[in-house]
């Protein structure tokens, strides 16, 4: 009797340990580490139900990755095919005689070209093959110069400066997209704050829709609950993807009228203390409760 109980405890403990390893591996997979294989993490020579679960989850993950990659390639191929005719259309539009109709054609052709370039950028980011070209950058000075070049009316506040190792081009892209989203879907004044390695972009509109706060940026969903045909909704998706390449974290919240003084959408970029590694892995950023 005692021996049977001891054996049961031993088997149960081993099974529990393997399940914990499987759960930890599944967590890495959910965070986007597609190289993880649960069957490798579980290990062991003894076959039990945990192995069957691991093989099933790995098979599902492989099938999902293949489907995502196929969709990404189709998206990239379509955008590449559209690039040449759209460029030709934009060139032809420049040859039209002056007038309001010509301006409208040129404006729509430029919008289509921007959309094609954005779709290509999203496809590259989805491939997880992008790598940051790092430089040491004084963050406060960098943000001030870039924001002034975009819009001189934006209020900039440097609470605490810091030097960061980052990719200036990608950081500028993130700032530009966040500010463009605030200008398009929010209300002035737009405020940009630098506090150490944290950059905040805030407007004074109605804030982000609940779906974006709950699920994060989604393609072709803008930062406004009233799209009204304004924008394609790729700006925040690109900003989040570029932040991932930098090893940074991009979060979104709505300002509260009671605690913050007014409503508005707040985008917060958390740059890491350590630069992304050559393997493309990034340090985990611990976010404060605020």
Automatic annotation (TrEMBL):
Write out the catalysed reaction.
Answer: ATP + protein L-histidine = ADP + protein N-phospho-L-histidine
Q: Does the keyword Lipid metabolism apply?
A: no
According to the entry, every stretch annotated as the HAMP domain falls at 13-69
Q: How does it sit in the membrane?
A: Multi-pass membrane protein
Molecular function terms, GO-annotated: ATP binding; phosphorelay sensor kinase activity
This protein's encoding gene: cseC_2
Domain (Histidine kinase) spans 77-275
User: Its principal location?
Assistant: membrane
Keywords of this entry = ATP-binding, Cell membrane, Kinase, Membrane, Nucleotide-binding, Phosphoprotein, Transferase, Transmembrane, Transmembrane helix, Two-component regulatory system
The major lineage groups are: Bacteria, Bacillati, Actinomycetota, Actinomycetes, Kitasatosporales
Stated name of the protein: Sensor protein CseC
**What Gene Ontology cellular-component terms does the record carry?**
plasma membrane
- InterPro entries noted in UniProt: HAMP_dom (IPR003660), HATPase_C_sf (IPR036890), HATPase_dom (IPR003594), His_kinase_dom (IPR005467), HisK_dim/P_dom (IPR003661), HisK_dim/P_sf (IPR036097), TCS_sensor_his_kinase (IPR050428)
